[in-house]
Specification:
With 379 residues, the chain is mainly beta. It has one domain (2-378). It is 13% helix and 35% strand. It has helices at residues 35-41, 50-53, 88-94, 134-138, 157-162, 226-232, 301-312, and strands at 2-12, 97-109, 120-133, 143-154, 179-189, 194-201, 241-250, 254-263, 280-289, 292-293, 328-339, 343-344, 351-352, 355-367, 377-378. The strands form two sheets. Strands 1, 2, 3, 4, 5, 6, 7, 8, 9, 10, 11, 14 and 15 form a 13-stranded antiparallel sheet that branches. A two-stranded antiparallel ribbon has the order 12-13. The longest helix has 12 residues, at 301-312. The two termini are 25 Å apart.
Length: 379
């Protein structure tokens, strides 16, 4: 079975969605931030354009991000895909308002196998988001507001030809209508060691989420273990629910997460934010350890500065001139949930509340040919 997937960024205000040096290519394997945190953690980064413009760093500059191309003459040298909007983009960004539009498509063919061999289908997802930095806008420290919407279209190759359970196109399904997706407030305290989020979002943004899950197209191995969503109605894109989540960064590279999420049937109505009498509550908890074995000590002030920046901005890419030696990074977590929702029983018409489950995950970098690069072998 052949698969092809493409991601094309149409336009973006956020520097994380720029064409040059942005974070929309494959996420570094040591990035542990969830989809929503990654969106927030990219605030304030400018693209590194010096590599394309040939300009050198200013004397004493610690970061090539400070060297911007003065007169871009190729598309790779532009900070944004659709330009500066006659200066309005900079005006909004300085006031903490950043918007983005992304388009993702999955095209898949089935030359052999499946119930009906042959066939080729296309599916897509277009998303709109608006992020507000409350500190820049009104002086409120550590506050962020996010609202987003999305639309999915296309045909599923799994439904049409293959007839398998784990669909081969990740972006298909769940929202074949325009849907208001996220709307939440996130508050960070004590140098981001305490993080609280409340509003409408999905559990999959924060629980059992790894960058390793987003490197493929088939839902059999992409996204996250499907048993959580299929068996427990663990909320996942594109079906956001009402929720609250607390995240605590603890000593020794550990993180504790806890949250309460609405459990409700997915609606075909794009603006159904109701609470229903039959809804339940899913209580989630997860403990995470992110060690870095054989970590080299920074040898210079520049490397220490770069390391501190990457620790604060976990979604930053490795860029020329800012190499930071890395050790062997791992991610280990265990978690579980308890749900009050009434679930149908196997081979029965009865519904019973009180479902629970446990999950665990582990990945470890076991080989890195260049300690200054993100490349390596993860097991």
């Amino acid at each position: 079975m052949l698969f092809a997937s493409c991601l094309f960024i149409l336009a973006a205000l956020s520097p994380s969605n720029n064409i040059v040096g942005g974070t929309n290519s494959i996420i570094p394997l040591e990035n542990t931030s969830s989809a929503s945190i990654a969106k927030l953690d990219t605030i304030g980064r400018a693209p590194f354009l010096a590599a394309f413009s040939g300009q050198s760093l200013a004397a004493g500059s610690l970061s090539p991000y400070a060297a911007l191309a003065r007169n871009p003459h190729t598309i790779l040298e532009y900070e944004y895909a659709s330009g500066s909007w006659l200066g309005s983009r900079k005006f909004l960004k300085e006031r903490g308002i950043e918007a983005s539009i992304t388009y993702t498509s999955d095209s898949a063919g089935n030359p052999v196998g499946g119930k009906y061999p042959g066939g080729f289908t296309y599916s897509d997802n277009i998303a709109f988001s608006l992020l507000v930095d409350a500190k820049k806008l009104v002086g409120w420290e550590g506050g962020y507001f996010m609202i987003s919407a999305l639309q999915r279209d296309g045909v599923s190759l799994s439904q049409q030809n293959v007839k398998n359970l784990f669909t081969v196109q990740q972006v298909y399904g769940g929202s074949e209508t325009f849907r208001f997706y996220e709307m939440y407030w996130e508050q960070r305290f004590r140098d981001e060691r305490i993080n609280f989020k409340t509003g409408r979002f999905v559990a999959a943004d924060d629980f059992d989420s790894s960058p390793l899950y987003w490197l493929y197209m088939s839902r059999g191995i992409d996204g996250r273990p499907q048993s959580l969503a299929v068996d427990g109605r663990f909320s996942a894109p594109p079906n956001a629910v009402w929720a609250s989540r607390l995240k605590l960064k603890l000593p020794e590279s550990t993180i504790l997460r806890a949250g309460a999420y609405q459990v409700t049937p997915n609606s075909v109505n794009g603006l159904n934010w109701n609470f229903n009498q039959s809804d339940g509550v899913m209580l989630l908890a997860q403990y995470e350890w992110d060690p870095e074995f054989f970590k080299p000590e920074p040898a210079s002030a520049e490397e220490k500065f770069s390391e501190e920046r990457q620790q604060k901005d976990r979604s930053a890419r490795q860029i020329p001139g800012q190499a930071v030696p890395k050790g062997f990074i791992g991610h280990y977590w265990m978690g579980g949930y308890y749900s009050t929702y009434e679930y149908p029983q196997f081979n029965s018409s009865t519904k019973v509340p009180g479902a629970y489950a446990f999950y665990w995950h582990g990945d470890q970098t076991i080989y890195r040919p260049n300690r200054d690069s993100n490349e390596g072998l993860v097991g």
